[in-house]
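Task: sequence design from structure.
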């Protein structure tokens, strides 16, 4: 039966009343008096029920039915407060429900909504007795009160909104769409208790939408993690939902505990975030939290990652994760039975790190053994560690011992390169060489190692003597053969074959004549020089002819080593660099001149290289001012340069300017 109230104030002290939903009474906020207000029949029972049904229809998106019920209200009493409120709610939801408002009708609807709300305010800024009686007739219908809360909040009416909210039991809202809006309202308003109530109503919410709303808006803490774990079971996540999870991991300010919880729970449901996000936004913050670290790695393993994802993680572990983290990560991966093939590059990366101690690197190598690293990988790793790694000697000894314990033999190149090229271990180099030859090596492959070492030894005299003694005791000896003609006739097609042959001959003990490189520089086909061959033929004790120097200066490629090579070559030539004669073709003229003059006119090198080479020649005594012969005419170099200044290349002109060729005093 419908009712209204005779009093809006406490009948004891006239204080303000507040409705208590549990006791279903009104309590005075001043004296605490409890009242069940006297009711009297007002004849509006039917319209109140129709108003309530209108709001319930709105709550469930049944706008057609809601419109019919609203029409019924209008017929009964269009001026009734309930009709006015139902009208406001219907128009508001028509505006905000996608597709409900006809195209072009929104502006008119907004005007109607504004006029209706103005009418409500004209009646009473506060809550009237008539309105209270209306809400009493709703019998605590959660859907109806939720509609009121959302509509009044959208209108900015805090008085009506708060009154309706006080009567709202959020656990009794059964419309999924309405619960979604109510949850947004609670989140945006900071009403955590209401949000918790809605989220607990798990059978009547869209769990997927609620899940994403929780991770993005709910305040961080244990309660948030509880909601995530409870809701996600009914969220129906699919693999593509990982993009939302990744966005959350990247942008959220939540604690690492909450982020791990989200990643783990989403991963269980098939929405695993990409390993790039796991590495950057989870693993990077878990060095001190073993439990969470193992959970993340375990979830990653259970997600059945592809090879690209797996080896990206392995690379990051080897490249930057602390020993503590890496131990837990690799241990978890072993427990999960992950099949891993460690690449030489990743092991090299770990071994070059300066943040790891020697025993930690050794432990790393021992962990890797769980996956049976093959001999070829070990050979590559050992070779690079022996010759390229810059660890302290004590650390190198530790690591080399561990590496060698994993192999029975090594390739010839690995051993030879260390003996001939590496001096990083100083006085302890003989100790490492003894370790190397303690393996099962075929000594016939090292017959000429002693001769090569005596020729190219990088070590101090005392170390050199000890190593020579050791190699002699092994019985190593031999003489090399020459391959100079083959090198001189090399073309691009057979370059690799030639280089491999030279290397093979060198590895077998081949030794070149002192003028081998000089011959190559003089006779190489089309003056086409290859840096690998130059490197192979160069000897510190070699002899370089002036013609060879001239060819290399004029035709050698500027490959980054030219200045360095030229410095070495010139020290082996009897003629000062730059002073030997040469002949070039320049601007249609045949020029006979000194090497420095020809180089300045015709160089195709880079500016830094050209400047360095010219300076080297000048330091050796070469000068630009001597007379040159252009075709059949003798003339000063300056005259030729000045006459052809505009035709000179930019670099040639700069070299002339730098050396004051155009100056009056030159």
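Answer:
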């Amino acid at each position: 039966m419908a009712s209204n109230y005779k009093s809006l104030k406490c009948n004891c002290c006239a204080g303000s009343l507040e409705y208590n939903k549990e006791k279903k009474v009104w309590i005075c906020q001043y004296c605490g008096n409890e009242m069940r207000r006297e009711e009297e029949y007002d004849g509006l029972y039917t319209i109140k029920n129709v108003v309530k049904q209108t709001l319930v229809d709105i709550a469930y998106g049944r706008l057609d039915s809601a419109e019919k019920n609203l029409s019924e209200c209008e017929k009964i009493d269009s001026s009734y407060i309930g009709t006015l409120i139902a009208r406001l709610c219907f128009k508001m939801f028509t505006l905000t429900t996608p597709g409900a408002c006809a195209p072009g009708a929104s502006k008119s609807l907004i005007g109607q909504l504004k006029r209706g709300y103005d009418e409500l305010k004209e009646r009473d800024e506060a809550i009237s007795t008539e309105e209270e009686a209306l809400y009493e007739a709703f019998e605590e219908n959660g859907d109806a009160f939720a509609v009121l809360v959302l509509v009044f909040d959208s209108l900015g009416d805090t008085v009506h909104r708060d009154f309706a909210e006080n009567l709202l039991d959020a656990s009794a809202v059964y419309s999924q769409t309405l619960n979604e809006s109510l949850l947004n309202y609670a989140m945006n308003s900071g009403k955590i208790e209401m949000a918790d109530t809605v989220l607990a109503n798990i059978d009547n919410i869209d769990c997927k939408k609620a899940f994403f709303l929780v991770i993005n808006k709910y305040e961080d803490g244990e309660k948030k993690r509880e909601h995530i774990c409870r809701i996600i079971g009914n969220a129906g996540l699919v693999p593509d939902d990982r993009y939302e999870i990744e966005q959350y991991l990247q942008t959220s300010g939540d604690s690492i505990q909450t982020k791990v919880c989200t990643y783990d729970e989403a991963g269980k449901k098939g929405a695993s975030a990409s390993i790039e996000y796991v590495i950057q936004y989870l693993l990077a913050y878990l060095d001190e939290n073993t439990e969470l670290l193992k959970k993340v790695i375990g979830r990653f393993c259970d997600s059945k990652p592809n090879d690209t994802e797996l080896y990206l993680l392995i690379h990051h572990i080897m490249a930057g994760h602390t020993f503590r983290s890496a131990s837990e990560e690799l241990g978890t991966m072993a427990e999960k039975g992950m099949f891993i093939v460690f690449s030489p590059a990743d092991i090299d990366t770990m071994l070059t790190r300066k943040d790891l101690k020697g025993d930690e690197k050794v432990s790393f190598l021992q962990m890797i053994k769980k996956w049976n690293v093959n001999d070829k990988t070990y050979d590559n790793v050992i070779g690079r560690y022996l010759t390229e790694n810059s660890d302290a000697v004590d650390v190198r000894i530790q690591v080399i011992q561990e590496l060698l314990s994993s192999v029975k033999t090594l390739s010839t190149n690995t051993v030879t390169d260390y003996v001939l090229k590496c001096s990083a271990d100083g006085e302890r180099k003989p100790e490492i060489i003894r370790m190397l030859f303690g393996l099962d090596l075929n000594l016939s492959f090292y017959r000429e190692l002693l001769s090569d070492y005596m020729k190219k030894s990088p070590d101090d005299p005392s170390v050199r003597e000890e190593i020579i003694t050791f190699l002699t005791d092994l019985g190593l000896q031999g003489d090399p053969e020459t391959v100079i003609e083959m090198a001189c006739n090399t073309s691009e097609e057979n370059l690799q074959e030639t280089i491999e042959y030279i290397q093979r001959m060198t590895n077998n003990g081949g030794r070149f004549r002192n003028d081998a490189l000089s011959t190559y520089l003089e006779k190489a086909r089309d003056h086409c020089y290859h840096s690998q061959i130059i490197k192979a033929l160069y000897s510190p004790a070699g002899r370089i002819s002036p013609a060879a120097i001239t060819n290399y200066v004029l035709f050698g490629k500027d490959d980054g080593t030219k200045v360095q090579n030229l410095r070495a070559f010139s020290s082996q030539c009897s003629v000062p660099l730059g002073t030997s004669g040469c002949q070039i073709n320049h601007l249609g003229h045949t020029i006979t001149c000194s090497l420095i003059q020809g180089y300045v006119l015709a160089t195709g090198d880079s500016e830094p290289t050209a400047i360095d080479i010219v300076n080297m020649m000048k330091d050796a005594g070469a000068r630009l001012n001597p007379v040159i012969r252009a075709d059949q005419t003798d003339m000063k170099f300056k005259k030729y340069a000045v006459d052809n200044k505009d035709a000179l290349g930019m670099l040639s002109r700069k070299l002339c300017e730098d050396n004051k060729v155009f100056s009056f005093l030159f």
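Confidence is low (pLDDT under 50) at residues 1-7, 37-43, 478-482.
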